[in-house]
Amino acid sequence: MKYDPIKRSLGVLFNKTPFLRQLFYKMLDVLLLRTWHVKKEVRLWASENKEGKADVLDAGSGFGQYSYFLSGVSKKWNIKGVDVKREQIEDCNSFFNKINRENIKFEYADLTNFASEKRYDLIISVDVMEHILEDQKVFEGFYNTMNAGGMVLISTPSDQGGSDVHDHDHDGGSFIDEHVRDGYNIEAIQQQLKKAGFSKTEAYYTYGTPGKISWKLSMKYPIQALNITKLFFVLLPVYYILVMPVAIILNYFDLKINHKTGTGLLVKAWK
Fold it and tell me: What would the pLDDT profile of 193-234 be if each residue is shown by its tens digit?
């Protein structure tokens, strides 16, 4: 199943005005469980950042929803979003200029050979590493462009059914076919980060039982329907009016429960 064509269609729809785009960001904040976990960890990091100022990298910024959140956490934060898709970079720079977010800029960058004169205090990478084959080079780039004491925050599928591989196609591939790997082992990714130079790592599972149900209701099933026919766009508002309250409750419980296993990983590493 392909996400990119659906994401492009939604981007065109919600990119007509800055108001619609910000509304889209709010919808993603509610529906995407990974956003709940990422925001929780960013807020925790911000509360421990005594100086208040920070240079932050959104590594794989995509449509800009996490950069939008980061740029709103503190006006003292300087945010840079980087991505390999130049059209996304141009689009994000245009949008953020329109809404007068002056503490954020977007640039083209390939994370497998990323270098920067600036040193970052916080790097986030959400739904990126599962798309990159040469992941060790990315982890080394994060380490080399980070200030001492800085933290990298990664959200990615786990090997416990990440990318929904238990519902694969007849060729045995991942349900989400843009992914180059089906998920990370929780110990192995921490070892890779330590090999890159990071001194301390922590990781925990996300998308436990509540999260998996929420993902299917809020993302998998509607995207499957849209892959079959774009006419389902007409029914999307009604569908989400019915599904959103259930998804919110499930996301809340997933955030609060310590999962013994899960299809997602939240990984932190410090320099």
Answer: 999 999 999 999 999 999 999 999 998 898 888 878 888 888
Among 39, 29, 77, smallest CA distance to 56 is for 77
pLDDT digits (tens, 9 = 90+) for 28-66: 899 899 999 999 999 999 999 877 899 999 999 999 999
Number of Cβ within 10 Å of residue 251's Cβ equals 24
* Dihedral sign, Cα of residue 89, residue 7, residue 36, residue 204: negative
Instruction: Extract the tokens encoding 240.
Output: 């989400």
Three-state secondary structure along the chain? CCCHHHHHHHHHHHCCCHHHHHHHHHHHHHHCHHHHHHHHHHHHHHHHCCCCCEEEEEECCCCCHHHHHHHHHCCCEEEEEEECCHHHHHHHHHHHHHCCCCCEEEEECCHHHCCCCCCEEEEEEECCHHHCCCHHHHHHHHHHCEEEEEEEEEEEEECCCHHHHHHCCCCCCCCCCCCCCCCECHHHHHHHHHHHCCCEEEEEEECCHHHHHHHHHHHHHHHHHHHHCHHHHHCHHHHHHHHHHHHHHHHHHHHHCCECCCCEEEEEEEC
Strands 146-157 and 120-126 come out as: parallel
